[in-house]
Specification:
This protein has 475 residues and is α/β, with parallel strands linked by helices. Helix content is 38%, strand content 21%. The radius of gyration is 23 Å and the shape is globular.
Length: 475
């Protein structure tokens, strides 16, 4: 991987005016590189480039935009091994998961490339024979996008591909923890022939960059993926300047296992979903609500499966879970576990750091988790599964909907009636029943309540980058 990740502004890579900062490998705690930090002058250059790039890119036909995006997707596939290795070294996830992220990223670009070709307007029948009423879709303008470290390609590409497919230019504030991974995505678009200014990449002080970019008159749309606390501040800033915003924020997903569930299947799927990426996934199942008739068996089986997960450096073959991404996540896991145990939870698996080098925390199962525990109310964003029993449908739904989060929810049942009811009753932007069926390119991806608004997937994602314009004319 490139040990010195630069900014990408106006079609060229360059150093940052605010110096550079180190990048650590979470498996070894060793410094593996550095990233350039943008100064205000760099941001001014990126804004000017985005404005020029937008004027050119919006006039490029949807057909040509689609062709270029597909070239970028193919370049990512060709470079898949080196890009995946960079993800694992910077973020910690097993190499197999990193390869999957690169492949999914390329698929997302392909999907938006094709969807952008089909972003049709419409004709509205007029009340007079000599009047034509047309709705045309115009790109909203330059975009400021802020992407997180947990999926350094997959989260960034949802913003970049949608914006470019719609004809917008974009400034991407990449994640400082995983800069080379994000830069590899930008390099694929640059090498595919994207015109200067259409895509720009900056790193640096997140608060300072967002405070400068969002109010700037050049920027017409905001897209942010991250915590609810930060999202609220950015949404307020965007609202103060009448900027359109898509906010994909935190989650605390319930997973309800009903009395008639296929227990073996539920355990198998939920264990994989919980500990993928060391639990650092906004849609990871977190509160496991299990019918009292299955509770003991579920806890035993889940704990057995958690204990069987092979932990280690993600570059080593056969590793099932790598470290959490940085020290503050490790410290949070320790604090949340200690708090839950102090309030009456029982450690059924894990519960502690592994070793003294790298940020490894054991896959943890906390049984009998009380509602008063911090982890039952705050998004853990790590490899902690909280398990509690329920007696009836109403109690399960009440607990599932108790929190202000509403991103994803899961349920396991054989009953068609229960499937229909939970799909209606769960207060969540996404509900997946009897499988983990989220995040495909063609599906909406977003939440309700304090988990945000707008979509990062499906046709809904692309619509956020268009302004509908009415043109009515009389002959």
């Amino acid at each position: 991987m490139n040990s010195d990740t630069q900014l990408y502004i106006d079609g060229r890579w360059r150093a940052g005016g605010a110096g550079s900062a180190p990048v650590l490998n979470p498996a070894t705690e060793e410094t593996i590189g550095a990233y350039a930090c943008a100064s205000q002058s760099d941001l001014d250059d990126a804004l000017a480039a985005a404005e020029r790039g937008f004027r050119h890119w919006r006039r490029t036909s949807a057909f040509e935009r689609s062709r270029l995006l597909r070239r970028a997707a193919e370049l990512l596939r060709v470079r898949g091994h080196s890009v995946a290795r960079a993800i694992t070294m910077e973020q910690g996830k097993p190499l197999a998961e990193s390869r999957g992220e690169v492949a999914a990223c390329a698929d997302l670009i392909d999907w938006f490339a094709e969807e952008g070709r089909r972003a049709y307007g419409r004709l509205i029948p007029a009340r007079a024979s000599n009047v034509a009423q047309m709705v045309v879709k115009e790109p909203v303008g330059p975009v400021a996008a802020f992407s997180p470290w947990n999926f350094p390609l997959n989260q960034a590409v949802r913003k970049v591909a949608a914006a470019l497919a719609a004809g917008c230019s974009i400034i991407l504030k990449g994640p400082e923890e995983t800069p080379a991974s994000c830069a590899a995505l930008v390099a694929a678009f640059a090498d595919a022939g994207l015109p200067a200014g259409a895509l720009n990449l900056v790193f640096g002080d997140p608060a300072a960059i967002s405070a400068y970019l969002i109010p700037h008159p050049t920027i017409r749309k905001i897209s942010f993926t991250g915590s609810t606390a930060v999202g609220k501040r950015l949404a307020a800033l965007a609202g103060a300047h009448m900027k359109r915003a898509t906010m994909e924020l935190g989650g605390h997903a319930p997973a309800i296992v009903f009395e008639d569930a296929d227990l073996d299947r539920a355990v198998k799927v939920l264990v994989a979903a919980k500990f993928r990426n060391a639990g650092q996934i906004c849609v990871a199942p977190t509160r496991f609500l299990v019918h009292e008739s299955h509770y003991r068996q579920f806890v035993d089986d889940f704990a057995t499966a958690a204990n069987a997960v092979k932990i280690g450096d993600g570059l080593v073959d056969g590793i099932g879970m790598g470290p959490v991404a940085h020290r503050r996540r490790l410290e949070t896991m320790e604090a949340l576990t200690a708090d839950a145990v102090a309030r009456g939870a029982r450690i059924a698996a894990g519960g502690a750091r592994i070793g003294n080098q790298g940020y490894f925390f054991a896959p943890t199962v906390l049984a009998d988790a009380p509602i008063s525990a911090r982890a039952m109310n705050e998004e853990p964003f790590g490899p902690i599964a909280l398990v509690a029993p329920f007696r009836d449908y109403e109690g399960a739904i009440r607990e599932a909907n108790r929190l202000s989060y509403g991103l994803a929810a899961y349920a396991y049942t054989r009953s068609a009636k229960t499937m229909a009811n939970v799909g209606q009753d769960l207060e969540s932007g996404m509900v997946s029943i009897n499988h983990h069926g989220l995040a495909l390119p063609e599906l909406p991806f977003g939440g309700v309540k304090e988990s945000g608004y707008g979509s990062e997937g499906g046709t809904e994602a692309l619509e956020a980058y268009f302004n509908p314009k009415l043109v009515t004319q009389m002959t």
